[in-house]
Design a protein that fits this description.
- The protein has 14 helices and ten strands.
- It has about 375 residues and is of the alpha/beta class.
- The chain has one domain: Glycoside hydrolase, family 3, N-terminal domain (TIM Barrel, Alpha-Beta Barrel).
- Strand 3, helix 7 and strand 4 form a beta-alpha-beta unit.
- Helix 7 packs parallel to helix 8 and helix 12 crosses helix 13.
- The chain starts with a helix and ends in a 7-residue tail after the last helix.
């Protein structure tokens, strides 16, 4: 009996030894490190994005008044008032260049740059043809820039490319960093208000033009702006009254939107929204004040850049809404920046709307982030 118990114990000891060995092997203990490989490795520390961190820190450092100022692209009035309000951009018109020497223009723009807390978009409308701000002054350019139509007819797309390079070089020489161009509207009818500002060709040809200009401007490091979304068509001049566009959505999809889609693919920085009421999108509000239009541009066309109104001083807008309310509705609609001659009144209108709870800090920060991100991408802001 004692022998049988001894045999059983021996067998148990052998079995337990094998089980212990298998357990040991299952742990796969490393001979050199002495660390079980089955234990989870430490998670790598996520890498921070320096640009994202910079933007968020800058936003956090601003007061609500400074943030709202950045949402405005103000028309220059010769004073430092816009700078004191921390506007995000300043647009210069013909009178700002008229009669000035090149050195005087450079000094004017240098003053703006040196006295802005956050680097500015400094832009103008140098389209060529009937809309030139700089080149009408022979002190700045010997002859004005020619129209897109003339250049295309004489030299096709290569002439347009070279013209874009020349415009960019002149803007950079003077200190500007943005041109409100190219015009992406499609018009083949000389009777249209917008015709002389367009290429005067069909949608496909206009789209190729927009692609060339947008890509060339990016290469030249000049901020671009497609206009006037969703396409001006046959509408009247909205400087004096609201245009009502009754065309079907299919017309826009098959025609007017094609150049904008090409510009978006080509990396356009801004898209400027027209003041026309476009019934196919929104029969109540002008496009510039329509949430539906902005949602279409962002969600259907995939535009992630900056959306900006046409100037909110235009009579077609102020007659309907008044200056203050127009600015608030425009921001609520989805614009990231408001082009404003009446910037003092309209900045205060947005501050009041914030204080009343009508617009949120999150909404303000969303557009501000996009503005600062674009300024960094185009070299206006340098991260140390």
């Amino acid at each position: 009996m004692k022998k049988l118990i001894a045999v059983i114990l021996s067998i148990l000891i052998v079995v337990m030894s094998f089980l212990a060995y298998d357990l040991y092997k299952g742990l796969d203990i490393g001979e050199k490190e002495g660390t079980p490989s089955s234990l989870p490795s430490p998670s790598p520390t996520p890498e921070t994005d320096p640009q994202d961190e910079y933007i968020k820190n800058l936003i956090a450092s601003m007061t609500i008044e400074e943030k709202i100022g950045q949402l405005f692209y103000a028309r220059y009035d010769g004073s430092d008032d816009a700078l004191d309000l921390n506007v995000g951009g300043i647009i210069l018109f013909g009178n700002d260049f008229k009669g000035k020497s090149k050195d005087e223009v450079i000094a004017m723009i240098d003053h703006l740059k040196e006295n802005s807390a956050v680097p500015l978009f400094i832009g103008t409308d140098e389209e060529g043809g009937i809309v030139n701000r700089i080149s009408l002054n022979s002190e700045l350019k010997e002859t004005p820039f020619r129209s897109m139509q003339d250049l295309y007819r004489e030299g096709s797309f290569e002439a347009l490319r070279q013209d874009t390079i020349e415009k960019c070089e002149l803007l950079k020489e003077l200190g500007l960093n943005m041109n409100f161009a190219p015009v992406a509207d499609v018009s083949e009818d000389p009777n249209d208000y917008i015709y002389l500002r367009t290429l005067g060709e069909d949608a496909k040809t206009t789209a190729e033009y927009v692609k060339i200009v947008t890509e060339t401007m990016a290469q030249e490091v000049i901020v671009s702006c497609l206009k006037h979304f969703p396409g001006y068509g046959t509408n009247i001049d909205t400087h004096s009254a609201i245009g009502n566009d009754e065309r079907e959505l299919a017309t826009f999809i098959e025609n007017d939107l094609i150049p904008f889609e090409e510009g978006i693919k080509s990396g356009a920085d801004f898209i400027l929204i027209s003041h026309n009421i476009v019934a196919a999108f929104d029969s109540e509000y002008p496009a510039s004040l329509s949430a539906k239009v902005h949602a279409f541009l962002e969600e259907e066309l995939g535009f992630k850049g900056l959306m900006i109104t046409d100037d909110l001083i235009m009579q077609g807008i102020t007659d309907l809404y008044g200056s203050s309310e127009a600015a608030v509705i425009a921001f609520e609609a989805g614009n990231d920046m408001l082009l404003a001659t009446d910037y003092k009144v309209q900045i205060q209108a947005l501050i009041d709307a914030y204080n009343e709870g009508r617009i949120s800090q999150e909404r303000i920060d969303h557009s501000l982030y996009k503005i600062l991100d674009t300024k960094i991408a185009r070299g206006l802001i340098t991260i140390d």
